[in-house]
Amino acid sequence: MKKLILFGILTTTLLTTACSGVDRSGERPTAPSGVSVIAVEMGDSCILKGHVEESHNSSLTKCGFYWGNDTIKNTITKEPGYDFIDVVKNEKAGRYYAVAYAVNYIGATTSDTVYFVISQ
Fold first, then answer.
1. DSSP 3-state of 84
2. Is 115 helix (H, G, I), strand (E, B) or coil?
3. Are 51 and 83 in contact, with CB atoms under 8 Å apart?
């Protein structure tokens, strides 16, 4: 009889703690959203600041920047995070572009393109 009561208590405890009252069946993971980039020109260099608003129900796996000009195409990969930064330096004078990107297990999202000028 003691075993039956103990079994009943354990079963009830497991069932009540394993089920939450929140229905999350309608929540689907999505690609990152709200990806943005800011370029701060500093004479012969530029600071790129990226931001991700949300990565709904899926962890970020990669973040960074695509940047370059007509002949230079570079990719900077940063540790996954909602805010990331890098510095472009030692480049020839001219106009360059930058795009921030973020990747999670569902997909990838890029920001709008910004332009910056490196002067010497």
1. strand
2. strand
3. yes
Residue 96 near residue 65 (C-beta atoms within 8 A): no
What's the full length of the chain, in residues? 120
The answer to whether 82 and 117 have CB atoms below 8 angstroms apart is no
- Span between the terminal Cα atoms of the chain, in Å: 87
Q: Which of 111, 96, 105, 117 is nearest to 64 (CA)?
A: 111
Q: How far apart are CA 14 and CA 26, in angstroms?
A: 24
Instruction: Give the pLDDT confidence of 57-88 residue by residue, as tens digits.
Output: 899 999 999 999 988 899 999 999 999 999 99
* Token code pair at residue 93: 């004078």
CA nearest 84: which of 34, 38, 30?
38
Q: Exposed (0-12), middle (13-18) or buried (19+): which is 52, by Cβ within 10 Å?
A: buried
| C-alpha closest to that of 58 among 41, 92, 33 | 33
**Which candidate, 80, 109, 111, places its Cα nearest to that of 98?**
111
